[in-house]
Backbone:
């Protein structure tokens, strides 16, 4: 099967127009038509219905589309990987990081690459896990590190467990909540709760432990994907941070923040995993990223618990 014919077919399917596809490919419409016809002859049926000025995919065309996309992407990556290996290079890497992994990994990874591999192109994309999974499947990302509980297992995903990250409730030193011997859930409700979006599993745990008012939709008053912004807010106000402790460990060690000993005991956390597409050609730099993630998380286990009360 001619790879060029598949590339032409994808351009036509993506643009929906012979003229726009030909322009995108920098070829004539007649050349594009011959290429599509050759692919149709090889596959034994029409891929597109030409209805006036409209072009609609046939059932065969729809069934071929995603397979053709995978073949073309894999061929491109194979060529790129072979060229890099011949040149002794590592390739480029596009990584999606969830809110917790972003707080723990983003700056250290950028520093590591700038020092150890200054010629390698690194891109870090932030956003909800659901969006990043789609970007991974669309080959816009090479790997993700997210809370695995926000991921639905599927045959096309390779999920590699990395670490469990304990979570807790944290406030600034001098917070009014630290004046009493015990902090109850009712005490927390008097203050803003700052958190990243939480998985359904964590939401269920909160409701089971503390009742309906602990539903994150009701409990969380300050929410965003950027943990650094949430922590800065907690340091400057009476807001309470609900999230992974590894992201604030340095400030806990310095005494700027304090982990609250809430009753009943808060007992939850995140489960971070590295996710790639199964069967996808892996560039050398991804192995470096995998090692870095594993070592970094091993260094970030909490070193002390609540120290008030």
Residues:
């Amino acid at each position: 099967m001619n790879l060029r014919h598949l590339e032409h077919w994808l351009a036509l399917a993506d643009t929906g127009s012979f003229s726009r596809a030909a322009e995108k490919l920098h070829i004539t419409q007649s050349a594009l038509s011959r290429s599509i016809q050759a692919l149709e002859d090889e596959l034994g049926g029409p891929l597109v219905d030409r209805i006036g000025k409209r072009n609609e995919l046939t059932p065969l065309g729809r069934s071929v589309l995603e397979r053709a996309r995978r073949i073309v992407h894999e061929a491109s990556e194979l060529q790129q990987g072979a060229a890099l290996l011949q040149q002794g290079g590592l390739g480029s890497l596009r990584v999606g990081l969830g809110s917790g992994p972003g707080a723990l990994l983003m700056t250290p990874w950028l520093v590591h690459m700038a020092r150890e591999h200054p010629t390698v192109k690194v891109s870090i994309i932030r956003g909800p896990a659901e969006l990043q999974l789609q970007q991974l499947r669309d080959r816009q990302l090479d790997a993700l590190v997210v809370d695995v509980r926000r991921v639905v297992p599927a045959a096309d995903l390779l999920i590699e467990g990395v670490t469990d990250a304990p979570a807790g409730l944290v406030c600034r030193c001098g917070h009014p909540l630290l004046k009493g011997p015990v902090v109850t859930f009712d005490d927390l409700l008097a203050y803003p709760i700052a958190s990243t979006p939480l998985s359904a599993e964590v939401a269920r745990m909160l409701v089971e432990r503390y009742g309906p008012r602990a539903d994150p939709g009701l409990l969380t008053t300050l929410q965003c994907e950027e943990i650094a912004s949430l922590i800065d807010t907690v340091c400057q106000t009476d807001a309470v941070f609900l999230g992974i402790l590894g992201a604030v460990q340095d400030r806990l060690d310095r005494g700027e923040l304090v982990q609250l000993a809430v009753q009943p005991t808060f007992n939850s956390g995140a489960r971070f995993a590295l996710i790639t597409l199964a069967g996808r050609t892996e560039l050398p730099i991804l192995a470096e990223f995998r090692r870095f993630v594993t070592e970094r998380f091993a260094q970030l286990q909490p070193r002390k618990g609540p120290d008030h009360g």
